[in-house]
Design a protein that fits this description.
The complex is a heterotrimer of chains A (313), B (101) and C (328). In chain A, 45% of the residues lie in helices and 12% in strands. Chain A contains twelve helices and eight strands. In chain A, helix 1 (3-27) crosses helix 2, helix 1 packs antiparallel against helix 11 and helix 1 crosses helix 12. Chain B is built from no helices and ten strands. Chain B has strands at 2-5, 16-22, 29-30, 35-40, 45-50, 54-59, 66-68, 74-77, 92-93, 96-100. Chain B has a five-stranded mixed beta sheet, with no helix packed on it. With 328 residues, chain C is an alpha/beta fold. In chain C, the strands form three sheets. A seven-stranded mixed beta sheet of chain C has the order 3-2-4-5-7-6-12, sandwiched between helices. A five-stranded mixed beta sheet of chain C has the order 9-11-10-13-14, with helices on both faces. Chain C has a two-stranded antiparallel ribbon with strand order 1-8. Classes of the chains: A alpha/beta (313), B mainly beta (101), C alpha/beta (328). Chain A binds chain C through residues 56, 87-93, 97, 99-102, 106-107, 109, 111, 114, 116-126, 128-129, 147-148, 151-152, 154-155, 158-159, 310-313, and chain C through 33, 59, 62, 64-65, 67, 69-70, 72-83, 100-101, 104-105, 108, 110-117, 148-149, 151, 173.
Chain lengths: 313, 101, 328
């Protein structure tokens, strides 16, 4: 098997894992307040294919795909989501603040746009210490009206920070469509006034995301300053488990037809790199990994209430 | 006549000054307009210049020392020989121009 | 004042104490950097960063655009990634623009990551009214005292500015360092030897028997002046300078209040949910019977019109009157 095919299959595996993981999570009655990435897997997976062990990834509160795509162990991620003690944040972070910096996932942050300036700071530290690598920060279209984005673009451009800003644009800020919230079109034009190179790609095509991410990440890594990548995606579920669906059924259905997993698998089948049997096997492996993660997390203990004040100060 | 050299107040916000540099030793004759001493406030430098000629007779506040506004920093005289008084405070003020930079 | 540091001392301006602390810490630890508006060649609005740019260079002493959310956020992110930044917010009024990264990220970084991350950042900001108007005058340190994970200190002398800033720069988490416009004209004795002033220790600035005045920052001078006024009437005041608001040294304040039987808290900020409200609550938890009073700014924004500003802020006369009412 060539490297190219192996890489392509790895991308498929990664997306299948995320999908299976979220399905398993949703079947669990105690799943809690979640923001799912289903439909948007290609963005996180394509981006992470461009990251090295020297890089750091930050995300918004839609953290499941970024964390799993970055390679975090699924059982640990599930434990953290369910607020269990073995999670990397001791159960204290949950989905909104999931983090494992030693594994290259600097962390999620649940305030919309709240991680942008932080990511710039992490990039500044890397630059000052002469470390190889760059920082990628994922955020949604919902963060694009914020002052924090403007301030981050400005300071990153001024100081030539090694920062890749990745807008996972699923077209909605909860119930508000992009056109009603944001004047710039496409959102990548937000980067132009600052002289920051930008691209808009099909976020349902994992190879398109990966290829654009590789190019822009390299720009940042080479010390040429920040870059901006907009990925147009469709989320399959509602904004969150606490939010009602606001889109017409036909729109959601049309989005699902463009499923990133289905598209990528079809491409591989068309190239003769994937047969039906292997595909089914890969799906079973993903399901098994998800089930195993859930079993681990389910049986894991909650934090001890007597440790409530641990790590506050 | 013997005079006292002091930085006249009030200067907004300033209570104390620190002597930065004397621009001459005892015995030096300062011409009108010549810089005598620079002092530092919390936010600026005060330049004190002679408004009329005089001889520096005694330094009361050395470089690095602190003093308040309107307090004698040194004694000046019309000549180098006149005996110095016991107290500096009773002397007339030496005419100076000062600039806060 | 009776509380000069022991050992050989040198007199310096308040701003010099700050610059000295930073220079020593920046020499000692290359991770310490400064971000802020006008901190570089300008040396800071009060010249409190004077000389640091020349000594340490533009990479470590950085001018930023006017963007408090990014200034604090970048400092916080850099801290979480291993640096030890100090970010200067020239006016405490503008701290509000950067509260999200400070409160939602920095103060919670260690907790929310289960200890994986720490955010050792010092946010230095200047509070207080001096003729600059409603949005350039506020003292809002009381808002910050109760944030879990955030420490708050407020020096009133050059010695404490020096010692508390050194301690702040060595802390493992975020610190809000609050100085005050009216403190910069001060000069005071600072120990020649390098030293840190620990957090959580109040200092008795003046000994007295009839009333405890617990205060901090710019109001320490007002307390002093009030004490002088009252001494002429035979009322002796004990002045406790809080220095550290979070953690708060309740023990020292309570011991003083137990002795004097009367506690007056004095702040330039608002009394509603103010520093004094917290001090009194905590002291009362240990001392059931105690006469108390709070003095703070009037419940109005502080405009730049000098007569109104003066009418808003506590002064020695008002404090003395409050003490008399408390003791009557």
């Amino acid at each position: 098997m060539t490297t190219r095919i192996a890489d392509s299959l790895a991308l498929l595996r990664a997306m299948l894992l995320i999908r299976a993981f979220e399905s398993a999570l949703m079947r669990h009655s105690g799943h809690g307040f979640q923001l799912l990435s289903s439909g948007q897997e290609a963005v996180a997976v394509g981006l992470c294919a461009a990251l090295t062990k020297h890089d750091q990834l930050l995300s918004s509160g839609r953290s499941i795909a970024p964390a799993l795509a970055r390679g975090l162990e699924p059982g640990m991620v599930m434990a953290e989501l369910l607020g269990k003690s073995p999670g990397p944040c001791g159960g204290r972070g949950g989905r909104g603040h999931l983090a494992w910096p030693s594994q290259g996932f600097f962390g999620a942050h649940a305030v919309v746009g709240g991680n942008l300036t932080i990511a710039a700071g992490v990039a500044l530290a890397m630059q000052l210490r002469g470390q190889p690598g760059m920082v990628a920060c994922m955020f949604g279209d919902g963060a694009c009206g914020s002052g924090a984005l403007h301030e981050t673009l400005n300071i990153a451009a001024l100081w030539q920070l090694p920062l890749l800003l990745v807008c996972d644009n699923n077209g909605y800020s909860v119930s508000t469509p992009q056109a009603q919230a944001l004047a710039p079109q496409p959102l990548a034009t937000l980067a132009s006034p600052f002289g920051i190179p930008a691209a808009t790609v099909d976020g349902m095509d994992v190879l398109a995301v990966r290829d654009a991410a590789i190019e822009l990440a390299e720009h940042a890594r080479a010390g040429k300053g920040p870059a901006f990548l907009e990925c147009l995606s469709v989320r399959f579920a509602t904004h969150s488990t606490a939010t009602r669906e606001t889109r017409p059924a036909e729109e959601v259905a049309a989005g699902k037809v463009r499923c990133p997993i289905g598209q990528h698998a079809m491409r591989l089948e068309g190239e003769g790199c994937l047969d039906r049997q292997t595909r089914v096997q890969l799906e079973h492996e993903a399901d098994a990994a998800a089930a195993s993660a859930l079993r681990f997390a389910d049986s894991a203990p909650y934090p001890d209430p007597r440790e409530l004040l641990l790590n506050v100060v | 006549m013997i005079y006292q050299l002091a930085v006249p107040g009030p200067i907004e916000d300033v209570e104390e000054l620190r002597v930065l540099e004397w621009h001459g030793d005892v015995g030096k004759i300062f011409a009108a307009g010549e810089m005598i001493v620079e002092l530092e406030t919390h936010k600026a430098v005060v330049e004190v210049r002679a408004a009329r000629p005089g001889v520096l007779r005694l330094i009361l506040c050395a470089t690095g020392d602190w003093e308040r506004l309107d307090r004698p920093l040194a004694l000046f005289g019309d000549d180098a020989a006149e005996p110095l008084p016991a107290s500096a405070e009773t002397q007339a003020k030496f005419l100076v121009e000062f600039e806060v930079t | 004042m009776s509380s000069d540091p022991p050992g050989p001392t040198v007199k310096m301006f308040f701003r010099e104490a700050i610059a000295r602390a930073l220079r020593e810490e920046m020499e000692r630890d290359e991770r310490v950097i400064i971000l802020g508006q006008d901190v570089g060649h300008y040396g800071g609005s009060y010249k409190e960063f004077s000389g640091l740019y020349e000594r340490f260079g533009a990479a470590r002493v950085r001018d930023t655009p006017v963007a408090e959310a990014a200034m604090i956020g970048v400092a916080v992110g850099a801290a979480a990634a291993g640096m030890r930044p100090l970010v200067s917010i020239t006016y405490m009024d503008f701290l509000m623009l950067g509260l999200d990264p400070l409160v939602n990220y920095a103060a919670k970084a260690r907790y929310k990551t289960g200890g994986q991350l720490r955010a050792p950042v010092v946010v230095k900001t200047t509070a207080g009214a001096r003729g600059q108007g409603v949005a350039h005058s506020q003292c809002i340190e009381a808002w910050m005292m109760g944030v879990p994970g955030l420490k708050v200190v407020a020096p009133s002398t050059p010695a404490d500015a020096y010692g508390l800033l050194k301690s702040a720069l060595r802390e493992e988490g975020p610190v809000l360092f609050v100085d005050h416009k009216r403190l910069f004209p001060l000069a005071g004795e600072v120990a020649v030897d390098e030293h840190c002033v620990p957090f959580g220790q109040a200092l008795i600035r003046r000994r007295g028997d009839h009333v405890t005045i617990a205060t901090h920052s710019g109001m320490c001078r007002v307390a002093d002046a009030a004490a002088e006024l009252l001494a002429a009437s035979g009322i002796s005041c004990e002045i406790v300078d809080l220095r550290s608001l979070a953690p708060l040294d309740v023990t020292t304040i309570a011991a003083s209040a137990a002795r004097t039987g009367a506690l007056l808290t004095l702040e330039e900020g608002q009394v509603t949910c103010g520093v004094g409200a917290e001090v009194q609550s905590r002291v009362r938890e240990g001392l059931a019977i105690l006469r108390t009073a709070r003095v703070g700014a009037a419940a109005a924004p502080v405009s730049s019109s000098p007569v109104l500003e003066a009418a808003c802020l506590p002064d020695a006369g008002r404090v003395a009157a409050a003490v008399r009412r408390l003791l009557s």
